[in-house]
């Protein structure tokens, strides 16, 4: 009976029961590099810039239209500093399809409004407009740092980073003390802190003179000293407040990683590393780091934009291949995070189908909400292909459905790839406290996601 049971039942195993010492060493080393990347990549722009820096060190060159493409060539195309496409040209022509992995590098955050600075009762604040799906109450009383760019009339761009370095000041959104919060505490979590209430405290010392808004004047004069900017320059700026927590190990066993922006830089880094490590691939391997996923993948730097098609069409043209012929034979891993089962909130999950921490890369045949609304739903054949590829390459993986059927749901860039006539499946790292200022992932799952993408890239 035991034999039959073994043969017939699908049984999942904890990843730590499946890997050897050698692999544990490899995953630690991989995760050290990932932690450094995440710590230094707090915005999509920084994630792109840091990826380009690493790629160039490894011999990737900026793609220029008309370039001759030889097998083994490593190229990248920077999309406005906010998204990135990289490729290693395969031995086979693009008419046989490409292997694509796509992740996003934007994360939920608090963007500054265009008219952002204001003074109230001799305290100065920045007004914000949150980006992506956040639980607003999580963003008060945590240290924040400021990142972004100010584009000036003369065409130059000023980069702003305050709070990342140890000795730099940070910022905060205050909350009401419990002693006076009787009314606030009666509100729901959704209403207790409002979007219009997410104003960041940035200064309190008045300018040494008479007149109105002296604190704001003093703050603006500091900014003018630091960056040469005026209040009007904020109108053409992209400044964002992000949590100022350092990325760190979590737990006595150090098996988890806590930090801001795992969604989805954890998958972005996995595919980036996999592309760096793939050796002389058969098919052309493409790695996408895209923007705007958290707001619906719209716009020039989002996956619904045409930048990807242009890039691929250019590559196809260089080989005399039609883009649509390439797409229909291509395979794409939409590498995005999924929710890990959380025993503190068991009611939100359905255990049999939810991803678990330390059980490896999470494969989602479909995403979507309720009746699978909005999912591209990968075919059984695509799922089988991935099963085979992962099993052959000893990738620890699991299936991953996002919580209980009726509770909600979510989407990724998968459908935008699938709509292009590319076989696409969602796969990525399970996350605890997804979209919180401080998210948690398991090292083993990060490493297996890298291994998974590498297996797909290396396929014959
Ligand atoms: Mn995501
Ligand atoms: Mn997300």
Task: Give your account of this protein's structure.
Strand 7 and strand 8 form a beta hairpin. With 460 residues, the protein is an alpha/beta fold. Helix 7 crosses helix 12 (443-458). It has helices at residues 2-8, 21-40, 44-57, 182-186, 189-192, 214-227, 262-277, 307-318, 323-329, 380-392, 414-418, 443-458; strands at 61-62, 74-79, 83-88, 98-104, 109-120, 123-131, 144-151, 157-162, 199-203, 237-243, 248-250, 256-259, 284-290, 331-335, 338-339, 361-364, 368-369, 397-399, 409-410, 423-428, 430-432, 439-442. The longest helix has 20 residues, at 21-40. The strands form four sheets. It has a nine-stranded mixed β-sheet with strand order 1-2-3-13-4-14-20-16-18, sandwiched between helices. It is globular, with a radius of gyration of 23 Å. The protein contains twelve helices and 22 strands. The two termini are 39 Å apart. One manganese (II) ion binds at residues 263, 294, 435. One manganese (II) ion (MN) is lined by residues 263, 294, 435.
């Amino acid at each position: 009976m035991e034999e039959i049971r073994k043969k017939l039942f699908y049984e999942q195993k904890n990843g730590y029961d499946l890997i050897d010492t050698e692999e544990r060493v490899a995953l630690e080393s991989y995760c050290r590099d990932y932690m450094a990347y995440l710590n230094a990549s707090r915005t999509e722009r920084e994630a792109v810039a840091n990826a380009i820096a690493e790629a160039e060190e490894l011999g990737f060159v900026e793609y220029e239209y008309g370039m001759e493409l030889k097998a083994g060539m490593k190229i990248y195309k920077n999309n406005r500093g906010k998204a990135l496409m990289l490729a290693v040209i395969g031995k086979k022509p693009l008419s046989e399809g490409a292997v694509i992995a796509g992740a996003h590098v934007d994360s939920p955050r608090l963007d500054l409004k265009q008219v952002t600075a204001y003074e109230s009762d001799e305290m100065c604040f920045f007004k914000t407009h949150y980006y992506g799906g956040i639980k607003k109450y999580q963003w008060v009383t945590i240290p924040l740092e400021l990142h972004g760019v100010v584009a000036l009339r003369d065409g130059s761009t000023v980069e702003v980073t305050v709070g990342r370095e140890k000795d730099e000041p940070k910022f905060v959104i205050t909350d009401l003390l419990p002693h006076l919060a009787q009314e606030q505490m009666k509100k729901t979590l959704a209403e207790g802190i409002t979007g219009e209430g997410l104003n960041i405290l940035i200064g309190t010392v008045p300018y040494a003179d008479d007149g109105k808004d002296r604190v704001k004047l003093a703050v603006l004069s500091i900014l003018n000293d630091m960056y040469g900017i005026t209040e009007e320059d904020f109108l053409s700026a992209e400044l964002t407040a992000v949590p100022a927590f350092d990325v760190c190990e979590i737990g006595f066993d150090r098996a988890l990683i806590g930090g801001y922006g795992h969604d989805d830089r954890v998958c972005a880094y996995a595919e980036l590393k996999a592309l760096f490590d793939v050796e002389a691939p058969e098919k052309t391997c493409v790695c996408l780091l895209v923007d705007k996923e958290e707001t619906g993948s719209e716009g020039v730097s989002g996956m619904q934009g045409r930048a990807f098609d242009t890039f691929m069409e250019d590559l196809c043209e260089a080989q005399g291949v039609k883009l649509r012929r390439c797409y229909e034979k291509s395979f794409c891993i939409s590498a995005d995070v999924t929710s890990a089962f959380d025993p503190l909130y068991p009611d939100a999950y359905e255990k049999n189908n939810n991803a678990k921490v330390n059980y490896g890369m999470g494969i989602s045949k479909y995403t979507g909400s309720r009746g699978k609304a909005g999912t591209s739903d990968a075919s059984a054949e695509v799922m089988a292909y991935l099963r085979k590829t992962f099993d052959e390459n000893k990738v620890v993986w699991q299936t991953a459905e996002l919580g209980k059927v009726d509770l909600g749901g979510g989407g990724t860039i998968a459908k935008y790839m699938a709509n292009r006539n590319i076989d696409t499946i969602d796969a990525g790292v399970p996350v605890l406290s997804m979209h919180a200022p401080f998210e948690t992932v398991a090292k083993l799952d990060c490493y297996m996601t890298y291994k998974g993408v590498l297996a797909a890239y290396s396929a014959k």
